[in-house]
Amino acid sequence: MKARAVGAVALRQFYLMRGSPTRVIPMFAWVAIDIVLWGFITRYLNSVSAAGLNFVPRLLGAVLLWDFFTRVMQGVTTAFLEDVWTRNFLNIFASPLSTSEYVCGLVLTSVATSLIGLAVMLVLAAGVFGLSFLSYGLMLVPFLLLLFLFGIALGIVASAMVLRLGPASEWLVWPLPALLAPFVGVFYPLATLPAWMRAVAHLLPPSYVFEGMRAVVSGAPFAVADLAVGTALALGQIIIAGLVFVRIFRGAVRSGLLARYSAESTA
Predict the structure, then answer these.
(1) Domain assignment present for 263
(2) The pTM is what?
(3) List of the chain residues with pLDDT < 50
(4) How far is CA 180 from CA 39, 147, 175, 197, 203, in A?
């Protein structure tokens, strides 16, 4: 794998964003709206709650972490979809670019875009709504890292799905985080879920993040072993996602699907 080739894939996305403000604004606009909306909701809940709980680190912190995960996943898929929308696959893979270099370039693009979104969220949450990240301590770093790893895995799988099913299937990609949210307990403990949903949750790395976040905020001991399990799951899922993408890509090349890729589904 050549670092120059990986950088070239990411550089193309940079040039696209530099020449089009409409591509840049969504990187921070939607996350800013989410933080502002949930920030005022948490202020309201603090004012009417008789329990004396501070909802800011519990709810607003959960929204921040979940939006970060969503931005990571969409950073991969949006970069991939740019090539779908412009029908650019033949141009890309007519070059000496390997599949792994292309996927790593998408991941590098996601790193940049998700960090921009994270910076906006941190500024708004801390500066406007007083979310103190000291309440999470050093655990904030592994929480973000684990969400980043799973976001990359889900973004690669979503891109493979579009590659296999055709451009029309991109509408199956955007709801994926929302479909997972009930299982990972973004806003509530996993104990509230039925047994079959808890079984699914234990296979999803974000569930370990949000359970850990609630434990840290409430002052309860957090099991580092759970974070290790979540990290192992995320790393394994990245490997599986990469293998799935490579397999689907090779199948598309052998069948001629890649050459016939157009605005209509060719499945």
Answers:
(1) no
(2) 0.87
(3) 263-267
(4) 23, 13, 9, 11, 11
